[in-house]
Amino acid sequence: MRRAEVLIPFAIGLGLFALTYSLGLLNPVRELTSLARTYLTIIPDKTSTYTSMSFEVVTAVIWDQRGFDTFFETSVLFLAIIASLSLISKTELRNIFYYPSTPIVRLVSRVLAPVIIIVSLSVAIHGHVTPGGGFQGGSVFVVAPLIIMLAFSSQRLGTHGFRSERFLLLRALGVSIIGLAGLLPILYSNALSVNAYLFQNLSKPGSGFSYPALIDTPLFKMLLSGSLIIYNIAEYLAVLTGFTIALYYLTIEFEKGGVGG
Amino acid sequence: MGRASIAVFTLILALIYLIYTGSYGVLEVMIALIAGLGVALLLATDLVRDPGKLSITRFSRAVGYLLKYFTIIEAQAHWGVVKLILKPGASYKPAIVRIPYEVSSEYSIVSIANSITNTPGTVVVDVDEDKKFFYVHWINATTLKDQEVRRIVSEVFEKEISKIFE
After folding, report:
1. Does A122 contact B21 at a Cβ distance shorter than 8 Å?
2. B124-161: per-residue pLDDT in tens?
3. Are B44 and B103 found together in one domain?
4. In this complex, do A121 and B21 lie within 8 Å of one another by their Cβ atoms?
5. Residue A200: inside a domain, yes or no?
6. Does the distance separating the beta carbons of A126 and B20 come in below 8 Å?
7. Which residues of A touch B (CB under 8 A)?
8. pLDDT of residue B19
9. What are phi and psi of A210, to 5 degrees?
10. pLDDT by residue (tens digit) across A78-94?
11. Count of beta carbons in the 10 Å neighbourhood of residue B49
12. Percentage of chain A lying above the pLDDT 70 cut
């Protein structure tokens, strides 16, 4: 018994070392691949014809370079939430058993929830200039309803204006905005018979369509990075509503005494 | 009723937004205020229940308490635990003790509980709101009598905090 306790971790460690050594991970190549170099130099460069006008390369790649792909990822999440809601839609709100929490937990979660939401908003709307974005902001947001539900009960969300139908509507709105923003270049190209690409952001060689990249007034300057800010806000809406609804129904199931009980 | 609460929390939230974002242009300040107002309307309508208690005096007392807490009181508590650790023979008596409190505001209860928990050696385990007791795990319970425990563990906190929130 004692010997196995020492030998097994040792064997696992040796195996991991052999694996990393044989794959060359201990001595990684320090040069960027050509694709990485292209992304890192061209996207933030405002003078380049292929720029996304965004310092945040990840957001630019996700929404500008492969927006079509990201749209379907969001749609998969949308459908997954719809499916899980239809599975637990028979939930009744009777006989909810509920442990009262201490005033410490209650007050701290009441004070922290608005703080979490304001931070999530900042994460979401600065997604094109900082590490962050709609999905990250939405995920941060969801912590706020979750701690409120854990400190009080799922029904407490209702006092803050939560209705699951209302959130489903907002969620559909978020996904629709992403779809429409992606389709708009095509509609534009058909209407004015110019070239444009699906999910196009800024103008490219051979295509005149471009979302506004920068609002410049004497009072303030606002970097929009074209469609990136639209996608980020819509994704924020879609993610926060979807996860809130899912967690709401899961919390109800837990209050009833567990899923399947 | 909630107007003072909304105003106070709009400003606090806008400030948090600006500090978190780290950019202070005209546009950011405008977004911060609008977002702060929206979130405050949604979630912070009942966080300030008695606007009459909002005053500069109470605020400066709170700042003074935080300064004193994070320097003198914390250092003393740390030193106490350091002595316990270094003393040979491990002759301390851990116990869960009961500490009565006499404040009524929720903010006071939470601040006292957090002050007790945040000092090394003591952790609030539970609160009995009806009988007004904290149940505290104390690493070296030198006494088990309610009032004596209170005098040693929480009297300083209670005296200072009741001047801020009561």
Report:
1. yes
2. 999 998 999 999 999 988 888 989 999 988 899 999 99
3. no
4. no
5. yes
6. no
7. 102-104, 106-108, 110-111, 113-115, 117-119, 121-122, 125-126, 144, 160-161, 219-222
8. 94
9. -155, 130
10. 888 888 887 776 655 55
11. 13
12. 93
**What is the length of chain A?**
261
Distance CA A138, CA A134 (A): 6
Q: B95 with B132, same domain?
A: yes
**Positions of E strands within chain A:** 214-216, 221-223
Cβ of A220 within 8 Å of Cβ of B25? The answer is yes
Question: Min CA distance, B56 vs chain A (Å)?
Answer: 21
**Whole-number Å distance between alpha carbons of B17 and A123:** 10
Cα B103 from Cα B61, distance rounded (Å): 17
- Chain A CB contacts of B13 under 8 Å are 114-115, 118
Which one is predicted more confidently, A39 or B135?
A: B135
CA distances from A193 to A49, A155, A184, A198, A212 (A): 22, 53, 13, 14, 20
pLDDT band at A261 (very low <50, low <70, confident <90, very high): very low
Domain range for B34: 3-52
Assembly ipTM: 0.89
Using CB atoms, pick whichever of A102, A111, A114 lies closest to residue B127.
Answer: A102
Structure tokens belonging to residue B99: 């500490």
**Over the stretch B44-103, which tens digit does the pLDDT of each residue have?**
888 888 888 888 999 999 999 999 999 999 999 999 899 888 888 877 889 999 999 999
Question: Which helix or strand (DSSP H or E) is residue B78 part of?
Answer: helix B74-86
Question: Are B78 and B101 within one domain?
Answer: yes
**What range defines the domain where residue A91 resides?**
55-255
Q: How far apart are the CA of A147 and the nearest CA of chain B, in angstroms?
A: 13
Q: Considering its fold, how many domains does chain B have in total?
A: 2
Residues A157 and A174: their CA atoms lie apart, in Å, by: 21
Mark whether B120 and B106 lie in a shared domain.
Answer: yes
* Cβ neighbours of B39 in A, within 8 Å: 114, 117-118, 121
Tokens of A78: 């949308």
**A215 within a domain of the structure (yes/no):** yes
Number of Cβ within 10 Å of residue B63's Cβ equals 11
Is A114 within 8 Å of B40 (Cβ atoms)?
A: yes
CB pairs under 8 A between A and B: 66
